[in-house]
Structures are given as C-alpha cells and as structure tokens.
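Letters spell out the chain; backbone shape is given numerically. Both lines appear below:
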Amino acid sequence: MCARWMPVENDFVRTEARLEEDPRLFTALAAIIEHAAGRVGMSDARRQALIRAAEQTCRDTWPASNGREPVVRIICDELGDRIEVTIQFPCAPEPGTEAKIKELQKRVDKATSEMGQGSFQITLVEFISARQ
C-alpha cells in the first residue's frame, strides 16, 4: 500500500492510496476516511455511513486478478462542505454494478460511477452537514 497526503489549498486536502488485492487493507480505507472526517468535523453517524459504503463498494466490486495485480486506487478529497471518496478499479465493472450504485445512493448523499479506458470508478459523497 502506498499513501500520500497532499494539501492543495486551505479548503481542499487530498489523500491517495493504492490497495493491492488484500481485504485486510480495507482498514486503511477506513482510517483515511476517519482522518478526513475528523479534520472537517463530520458527525460520527455520517462518518460511519461513508466508511461502511466505501468498504462495501470495495468488497462488492474488487476486480478479479486476470493474471495481473489488481490495484485499486483510493482518493479521498476533503472539500469545504463534503468528503468525496473515489475508488478506481483497473478493469470494467462486473455485471450488476449499476444496481449496487443505486443501493449506495440510499446510504450516502451521492454515489456515481464513471467508465474510462478499460477502467471505472465509483465516487461516494457525504456532506458535512445535513443532507443537501
């Protein structure tokens, strides 16, 4: 696992990590979100909802190795009014991923997915204050 913390501006902090195929590394994901949520003053309930959603996203969509090392990139952005957690996978989504996104949308303020060239990402957003 490789992680770095990058302060960019007063209202924006980004933390990135690369997780290799080992579910024990999900604790790193929880620690990143916990740290970000603590920095911005997010309530415990909102913090835990975001952590659970991010961990479930990794469990449900972790790519098969297909002969290569599946590295998942985690990006946690602290913005003025929210935390955004982006989980980037190195391959196309598994069937049923869109249904999982719809379920995530019930658990966090916003959940979206985006396809790239041979990869995809899921972004989870939780606002610091009441749902917006």
Summary: The chain has one domain: 2-127.
